[in-house]
Amino acid sequence: MERTTSIALGSVVVAAVVLGLKFLAYLLTGSVALYSDALESIINVAAALAALIALRVAARPADANHPYGHTKAEYFSAVAEGVLIVLAAASIAREAWPVLLHPRPVEAPWAGLLVNVGASALNGVWAAVLLRAGRAARSPALLADGRHILTDVVTSVGVVAGVLLARVTGLSWLDPALALLVAVNILWSGWGLIRESVGGLMDASVDPTTEARIRHAMSEHAEGALEMHDLRTRHAGRLTFIEFHLVVPGEMTVTQAHAICDRLEEALQAETPGAHVTIHVEPQEQAKHHGVLVL
After folding, report:
1. What are the structural domains, with CATH classification, of the chain?
2. Membrane spanning segments where (predicted)?
C-alpha cells in the first residue's frame, strides 16, 4: 500500500496545480464554460484528499473489530467523490443558466485557453498513471479518481473547443450552453461512480468473466473431489472473497480432503490475486449434486 498511498498524495498535488491553472484561465477569459471546468477541479482536490485518507485506512491490518480488514474504506472515498461531482454539476448549472439567458462576450480567450490546455495535458498524463496503478493494485479509490480525472480531460477539450467556437462565430450563448452540457456530463460521471461504489459496499459479486475463470480453476484443480456448488463471491476493495462447498467421497479422510482444499486455494489465489478462499467440505451422501464438476 506504500505505492498506492504515494500516488494518492501525488494526486492531491497535481489536482491543486490544475485547479490553480484552470482558475487562472477563467480569470483571463471570463468564460462561464472555463469557470465550470475550474469548479470541477475543486472537486478533484477534494476527491484526491478523500482517496488519500481512504487508502491510509484501507491499509490497516485486520483487527478484533474488523476481522476481514479495512479495505472497503476505499468505496467510501469513491461514493464521496461521486456525491461531490453531482454537487459540482448543480453549481455549474446555477452559474450557467443566467448567462445563457443574458449572454456576455468572451474576452481575450487565447492566453486563458493555452493555460487551460496545459492544465488538461497534465491531467491526462496523471489520469493514465492513476488508472494503471489502480488496475495493478485493484484499488477502487485510485480507479475512481483516475476515471474522474479522465472525464475532466474530455470535458476540458470540449470546453476549449466551445469557447473557440463562441469567439470565432460571435455567438456568445455557446459559452453558457456548453457549460450546461459540461454539467450534464459531470452529473452522469458522478452517478456512475456512486453506482459502482455502492455495488462494492453491498457485496456485489465479481463480474461474469472473472467468475468464469474462477469456475474453470475450481474444476481443473479439484482432482479427487466430485463437484463443487453454492459458489459465492464478493469484492472488498482490492480483496476478493470466494466461498463454495466441495463434495468428496464419503470414505475420503480429512487429510485427503484438506490436501484438495489447499490445492484449490493456491490455484484460486493465483487466478485472482488477493483472493480469500473459504471451502466447506461435505460427503457425497449429503451433497446437493449440482454445481461445478471436476474435470
Report:
1. 2-201 (1.20.1510.10), 208-293 (3.30.70.1350)
2. 7-29, 41-59, 75-93, 113-133, 153-171, 177-194
**Nearest-angstrom CA–CA distance, 291 and 278:** 16
Range 103-142 burial, b when 16+ CB lie within 10 A, else e: beebeebeebbebbeebbebbbebbebbbebbeebbbbbb
Give 23's pLDDT tier (boundaries 50, 70, 90).
confident
pLDDT of 169 reads 77
Closest CA to 112 of 185, 174, 33, 12: 33
3-class DSSP assignment, residue 108: coil
Amino acid identity of residue 147, one-letter, is: R
- The phi and psi torsions of 45 (rounded to 5 degrees) equal -65, -45
Query: How do strand 239-248 and strand 275-283 relate by DSSP bridges?
Result: parallel
Rg (CA), the chain: 25
Chain centroid offset of residue 291 CA: 32
Residue 11 near residue 126, CB atoms below 8 Å: yes
The yes-or-no verdict on residue 134 having pLDDT over 80 is yes
